[in-house]
Amino acid sequence: MPSGTADVGYAVGRIGTTNDLQTSKRNIIPTDAECRTSKEGVFAGGDVVTGSATVISAMGAGKIAARAIDQYLRRLR
Predict the structure, then answer these.
(1) Does 1 reside within a domain?
(2) Where is the signal peptide (predicted)?
(3) Of 1, 9, 43, 60, which has the maximum CB count within 10 A?
(4) Rounded distance between C-alpha atoms, residue 57 and residue 44, angstroms
(5) How many domains are there within the chain?
(6) What is the pTM assigned to this prediction?
(7) 10 CA to centre of own chain
(8) DSSP-derived secondary structure letter, 34
(9) Phi, psi at residue 72, to the nearest 5°?
(10) First-to-last CA distance in the chain?
(11) 9 belongs to a structural domain
């Protein structure tokens, strides 16, 4: 995978830092199958999407999100 940098609007680093993202009553961020949130260009994965889960689940979500983010950024070029 090529390396480089990209400008981003913001990144969600932890639960509670959701800014203007849609969240559930349990403060979970809903996403589609490719980890896209309700806000264009914003992706989420791991416990902030599933609630407390296993490390394996979080790693799987991270891989899905990474692929989706890569595809999204390539389309912006």
Answers:
(1) no
(2) none
(3) 43
(4) 13
(5) 1
(6) 0.65
(7) 11
(8) T
(9) -60, -50
(10) 16
(11) no
* pLDDT confidence of residue 63: 86
> Look-up: residue for tokens 């995978």?
1
Q: Would you call 49 helix, strand, or coil by DSSP?
A: helix
What is the pLDDT at residue 62?
81
Q: What is the DSSP letter of 19?
A: T
Residue 44 near residue 29 (C-beta atoms within 8 A): yes
β-sheet bridge partners, residue 43: 36
Q: 67 lies in which domain range?
A: 23-77
Read off the pLDDT band of 6 (50, 70, 90).
Answer: low
Looking at the domain assignment, is residue 48 inside a domain? yes
Q: Is residue 2 part of a domain?
A: no
Question: Which tokens in the block code for residue 30?
Answer: 């809903």
How far is Cα of residue 9 from the mean position of the Cα atoms in its chain?
13
**How deeply is 29 buried, as exposed, middle or buried, from its count of CB atoms within 10 A (0-12, 13-18, 19+)?**
buried
Torsions phi, psi for 73 (to 5 deg): -65, -35
